[in-house]
Amino acid sequence: MTTISMASSSPTSTFLNLPNRKPNRWVSSVNMKRVSASVKGELTSTEGVKLTQGTGNLPKLVITSPYGSEAEIYLFGACLTSWKTATGKDLLFVRPDAVFNGQKPISGGIPHCFPQFGPGKIQQHGFARNVNWSILESESVEGKPVVTFELKDSPYSRSMWDFSFHALYKVILDSTNLSTELTVKNTDDKPFSFSTALHTYFRASVTGAAVTGLKGRKTLNKDPDPNNPLESVEERNVVTFPGFVDCVYLDAPNELILDNGLGDKISIKNTNWSDAVLWNPHLQMEACYKDFVCVENAQIKDVQLEPNQSWTATQQLSVA
Q1: How far is CA 52 from each of CA 16, 55, 61, 98, 221, rounded to the nearest angstrom?
Q2: DSSP code, position 156
Q3: Is the pLDDT of residue 157 over 80?
Q4: For residue 122, how many other CB atoms are within 10 A of its CB?
Q5: Which of 83, 143, 135 is nearest to 108 (CA)?
Q6: pLDDT value at residue 28
Q7: Is the confidence at residue 35, as pLDDT, over 70?
């Protein structure tokens, strides 16, 4: 069930704000309460949070927990591209054809799909993965680094989706957990609707990867015709990836288990993400399809927000 709330006033201070369409223009000096950074990426004042330059000179945050786990988040798209446990093993996957030029979405990690999932009236999967987000806040909570990003409407977003909004994306890193919280608030004077998803790429051996927890759920299978998905009910206890897979699971449970075929079992828990999507392109991406699977938390049916209403969903990834 989708939960919508009347949101209180959101923070308005922006501590690091890069231009939406010019990600290579760094701020030379930033006056921030919790995060301090220079054009060369100095250590921030929050323990375990560092602003630096990533691939293509795009700014990224590297966050490290006291337990040795680490995550990397690019400000372009607020895209998590790496999640490593203390062993140094990266559980996320970035495609070898990913482009880090600030002109197209980063292909891999955990891209945002907002305000549209899939094809539709605007660009594929919406614009949130194709603009710079800002760092709103960085803090340490019980030793765990917590970073909050924000995205607001801009001339670029309004050129295709003419609404005022405020999105917050919180990332929390623990020893074996990576948690996120996405909040979307309607700051317009008229209602709007949206769909959204976290398009998570997990590193995997596709022949050994399997997902449990989906039996009995209604499916919309986009193979062979994505424009006319086949409706059915999942009958398998364990769902595998024997070939091309592009399937939506409606009213999905709040926990799925992914066996990545590489010796890891990953729990994918959520609140308020109503659906799930499994995807692997198979021979459409012959260079890399064997090395990943996508298990996505999604909100396929449009969420309708009245002015000042907000919608929040959380995801928690954990590995045993």
Answers
A1: 13, 10, 6, 19, 41
A2: H
A3: yes
A4: 14
A5: 83
A6: 26
A7: no
